[in-house]
Specification:
heterodimer, A: alpha+beta, two-stranded antiparallel sheet, globular, B: alpha/beta, 9-stranded mixed sheet, 15 helices, 32% helix, 12% strand
């Protein structure tokens, strides 16, 4: 399960492109493309590296129901888009 | 492609994106082969081909627009003397490259260089799992050339090359053989639809899969879909029932487009015709301006009614099929796809229609089909003969 209290960042080879519906997320290493269809997720992912924990990033985006967003972020961990900051 | 959180992306995509997801860039019309179904009617180099500097300017603009990768093709892109320079320039500027080649330049040294890069993907074109089937379409020696390229890539440690196959009447039955071939080289099979575009218009009637083969292809995709790429090109088959993985819509001018060797921007790689020309990157203010503001692309992004197809129960799965396939078979764009699996295409093809010809043709002046007729006169065999002249 996604560790909300860890520090996360976008993979160095991943890039985020804003679009009217949300954003495209592309990983140059795996050549995988993901679609983020939720503007809050986009906001969280874009800023996640600037926060000490994922929980703090969610709080900053005004998220109250943390569970569903943790699930979405977990999907991005599985596709190697998000990685723990060492 | 995967999506995080549910919803209807298709509806968003129909309205267009700020930049394309899938951009095809044909670097040259020059080609060492003369495939009978070439969708860009390639052969001779166009003297107006973009210079190295102009190509780099395009890459700079793609980087600014965050176009993550381009599909480079042609013609045979590797015959450009600056090809590797442009590939390096693109990857240094955060534009990944996937290029299509017939394999002519993929020798051991090139394979080793490619294996060392994370940002370059290679796609080898092959239209038969045997030399006999392949060479009938792509020309003598082309099967051996492609296999040699795959061997070089595999020996150099290049992982996951793509083998790109256009499905025809003669190779649908070889799907399992193609898969085995891909497995042998540690490659991924990619199959795409035969379009009646370019020289494809001349051979489409004879080469496009039969109705029975379309069903065979669909069943094979449903069974093997996860391990096989399709460029989402078989979405018209989704009207059989279960939707195929990927985007089930025509992305022309919405999420895809084509930049051709002279900088002309077309709505999709299968639509090189003045009717689908959105503008030119040199004359019309750059690629970004053409993508965002051309009249053609704005029109393609406006809501459509679905025309005659809207009342079909399967419209939501196939969205009326492929625009280019309709256009180049002379069918109305708001009607059924010529290969509509519900049979509406056959009816439409049987009606009176005019097949449009593209003015953009770089074919070399050589016979592209085998002449089977028996010689009737001496000069049928040799036009400079003196035999029989009295």
């Amino acid at each position: 399960m996604f560790d909300l209290d860890a520090r996360w960042q976008l993979h160095p080879q991943a890039a985020l492109r804003p679009e009217p519906f949300g954003a495209l997320l592309y990983h140059f290493g795996t050549r995988k493309l993901s679609f983020l269809k939720n503007l809050v997720v986009v906001q969280v992912v874009a800023a996640i590296g600037e926060h000490p924990t994922a929980r703090a990033a969610l709080r900053a985006a005004g998220v109250e129901d943390v569970a569903i967003y943790a699930k979405a972020l977990d999907t991005l961990v599985n596709s190697n888009m998000l990685v723990r900051t060492s | 492609m995967t999506a995080v959180l549910p919803g209807r992306l298709v509806d968003q995509f129909e309205l267009g994106l700020d930049a394309p997801i899938c951009l095809t860039w044909e670097l040259t019309y020059a080609c060492n082969l003369s495939c009978v179904h070439c969708l860009s009617s390639s052969g001779k180099r166009d003297p107006r081909e973009l210079s190295t500097r102009q190509c780099k300017d395009v890459i700079d603009e793609l980087e600014r627009m965050q176009v993550f990768y381009v599909n480079i093709g042609g013609g045979e892109p590797t015959v450009r003397s600056d090809f590797w320079e442009l590939v390096d320039y693109a990857t240094e500027h955060h534009v990944g490259v996937k290029f299509s080649t017939n394999g002519v330049r993929i020798d051991k040294a090139v394979a080793a260089k490619l294996a060392a890069s994370d940002y370059v993907d290679v796609q080898i074109s092959l239209d038969g799992a045997t030399a006999e089937v392949n060479d009938a379409v792509r020309g003598p020696g082309s099967f051996a050339m492609a296999i040699r390229a795959l061997e070089n890539l595999s020996q150099a440690g290049f992982r996951d090359a793509k083998i790109s196959v256009v499905m025809t009447r003669h190779n649908v039955g070889q799907l399992d053989e193609f898969k085995a071939l891909a497995d042998r080289f540690g490659a991924t099979l990619r199959i795409t639809r035969l379009r009646p575009s370019g020289r494809g218009a001349d051979v489409w009637d004879a080469l496009h899969p039969t109705a029975v083969q379309q069903r065979e292809l669909y069943d094979w995709l449903v069974a093997h879909g996860d391990g096989v790429l399709t460029g989402d090109s078989f979405f018209h088959l989704s009207a059989y029932g279960e939707a195929l993985p990927g985007l089930n819509l025509c992305g022309a001018g919405r999420v895809v487009c084509l930049i051709d060797p002279v900088g002309d921007v077309y709505a999709c790689p299968f639509a090189i015709h003045e009717s689908f020309l959105a503008g030119n990157i040199l004359r019309d203010g750059g690629f970004r301006t053409v993508w965002r503001h051309s009249d053609l692309f704005e029109e393609l992004r406006s809501p459509t009614t679905g025309g005659a197809c809207a009342k079909c129960a399967f419209f939501d799965t196939c969205r009326g099929g492929c625009m280019a396939a309709k256009f180049f078979t002379g069918l109305p764009l708001d009607g059924p796809d010529p290969e509509c699996v519900q049979g509406y295409g056959e009816t439409a093809l049987a009606a009176e229609r005019t097949v449009p010809k593209s003015a953009v043709d770089h074919s070399r002046a050589i016979p592209l089909t085998v002449i089977v007729r028996q010689p009737q006169r001496v000069c049928d065999e040799n036009p400079v003969t003196t035999r029989g002249v009295r």
